[in-house]
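Reply to dn_fold:

You asked what the input looked like. This is it:
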Amino acid sequence: MTLTGLSNRGLLVIAVLVGILWGLIFAERAIIRRAHRESQLLLRSRPSMPVQYAQPSLSRPLRRG
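and this is what came back:
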């Protein structure tokens, strides 16, 4: 039986491709979630370093002339 001109084989191929697409979407979400978790662990494991600001110069510039 054909549904709007699609054969059973065509419907099966579409179903398989949709299943693969959903699998890829779920895999991508899992990869992104794991990468985010690993980056957070890395940032937490590193000791925080204090910010070093430039100290203003106390000497006067040399004047020539």
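Residues 56 and 62 are 16 Å apart (CA to CA).
Hope that clears it up.
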